[in-house]
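Exercise 7. Predict the structure of 3'(2'),5'-bisphosphate nucleotidase CysQ from Parasphingorhabdus flavimaris.
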Amino acid sequence: MSDIMTDADLASELALSAGRILLELRESGKFEGKELGKAGDEAANAFLVRALREQRPEDGLLSEESKDTAERLEKSRVWIVDPVDGTREYGEGRPDWAVHVALAIDGVATTGAVALPGLDGGLVLRTDKIDKFPVHDGPPRLVVSRTRPAAEAVSVAGRLGGQLVPMGSAGAKAMAVVRGEAEIYLHSGGQFEWDSCAPVAVALAYGLHCSRIDGSPLVYNQEDTYMPDLLICRPEWAGEVFELL
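Solution. The predicted structure, encoded as tokens:
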């Protein structure tokens, strides 16, 4: 990697490379289930942290798999990463997991990439290269948790005549909206900054609506990294969703 890489290039390259590490580890057959998930988290995190420390030594860093420190709170630029978003899905051999690499500047999810290595051929969606995806004409599809769909999402889907689409990781759900496979991702069960920073950066770049479910902005690099809720949707559905919440 070169020091002259743009932030978007760096995010994309790191997400792609971490995804390859994770696929190689899974294909090795050395681990299964929860042990595979744990090994994947450790391997991908070690790679991402080392690379970011080398490439952007002056920036702050927040990772799900590293001990947090207060140092990042003094930084304007903070990288927020989730080495394996959807560890359970990864360990089960499912495709709906992701790698998140994002840069928040002054609390705003600004630049980033989300890798979906489990899809056929793999895929990286990034903030600086916008692809065209189909637009759905009809009742909305709402991506929800496979095991604990948010009550608000179930209610909104019913009142809009929409369809619930169970899916794994937060990144996979958000990218389903970006890719035109769903129109709404409404989550109220609590997450952390690393769960949504990269997906939100990419979704914003694609012109989607991103906010808390009360309409307030999503603010990153906070002392408390817990984020209670999230709405990512096509802009034409945002108004109706807020009216129903």
